[in-house]
């Protein structure tokens, strides 16, 4: 099953109801799927949004997992954020990350358009210095310190030290990962 199939079998709602631009970064752009960040590649798509923006499920499904996504103890310029994984009725897993507030628990069923939580502020501008990766310093300069980071999976990979903060530090990419660009682009046109 592909992202396009998920789209056909489910209603499909833009994950940020307050975001009327519905811009999807295309491959190669900053914040896009598999963006090359030098020592790491981006596992999802970033949708920049103000802290506190509502995040809703794009599909009907089940809340599969909720947890901590980033913590300042791991990387100094990170703030604490959370993730929610929803298994859509079509079988695919959608990971909504860099949330500041989570409103659901694992095991709950969820409808498309229902709130999962709110966008957090993943980057701490005061802690970003010259040692931070270039893409982080650019985000700070552009004031893009809060966003929804969204990943799509056919199956969830085993936990790995190579996966940190939505980036993959190994060769290739995490098993089961799918490009969400086309799915989001299709949803954005509804
Ligand atoms: Zn991201």
What would you say the CATH architecture is? Distorted Sandwich
Radius of gyration: 15 Å
Shape estimate: globular
Percent strand: 25-35%
CATH class: Mainly Beta
Count of β-strands = 12
- Average per-residue pLDDT, rounded, comes to 93
Could you describe the 3D structure shown?
The protein is an alpha+beta fold. The protein has a single domain, classed as Glucose Permease (Domain IIA). The protein has 3 helices and 12 strands; from the N terminus they run H-E-E-E-E-E-E-E-E-H-E-E-E-E-H. Helix 1 (3-9) packs parallel to helix 3 (181-188). The mean pLDDT is 93. The structure holds zinc ion. Residues 42, 44, 46, 149, 166 line the site of zinc ion (ZN). InterPro entries: Cell_wall_metabolism_enzyme, Dup_hybrid_motif, M23ase_b-sheet_dom. Pfam families: Peptidase_M23. It comes from Candidatus Methanocrinis natronophilus.
Gist?
This is M23 family metallopeptidase. This protein is an alpha+beta fold and 190 residues long. The chain has helices at residues 3-9, 134-141, 181-188; strands at residues 41-42, 45-48, 54-56, 61-70, 81-88, 93-102, 109-110, 115-119, 147-153, 163-164, 167-168, 177-178.
Key descriptive features of the protein:
single chain, 190 residues, alpha+beta, Glucose Permease (Domain IIA), nine-stranded antiparallel sheet, three-stranded antiparallel sheet, 12% helix, 30% strand, binds zinc ion
């Amino acid at each position: 099953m592909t992202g396009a199939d998920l789209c056909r079998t489910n209603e499909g709602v833009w994950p940020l109801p307050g975001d009327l631009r519905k811009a999807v970064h295309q491959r190669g752009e900053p914040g896009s799927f598999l963006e090359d960040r030098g020592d790491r590649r981006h596992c999802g798509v970033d949708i920049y949004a103000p802290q506190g923006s509502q995040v809703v499920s794009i599909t009907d499904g089940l809340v599969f997992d909720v947890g901590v996504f980033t913590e300042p103890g791991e990387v100094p310029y990170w703030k604490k954020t959370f993730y929610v994984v929803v298994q859509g009725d079509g079988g695919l897993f959608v990971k909504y990350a860099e949330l500041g507030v989570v409103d659901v628990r694992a095991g709950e069923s969820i409808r498309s358009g229902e709130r999962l939580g709110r966008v957090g502020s993943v980057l701490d501008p005061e802690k970003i210095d010259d040692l931070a990766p270039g893409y982080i310093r650019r985000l700070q300069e552009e004031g893009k310190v809060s966003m929804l980071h969204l990943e799509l999976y056919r199956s969830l990979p085993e936990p790995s030290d190579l996966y940190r903060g939505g980036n993959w530090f190994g060769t290739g990419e995490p098993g089961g990962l799918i490009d969400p660009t086309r799915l989001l682009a299709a949803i954005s046109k509804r």
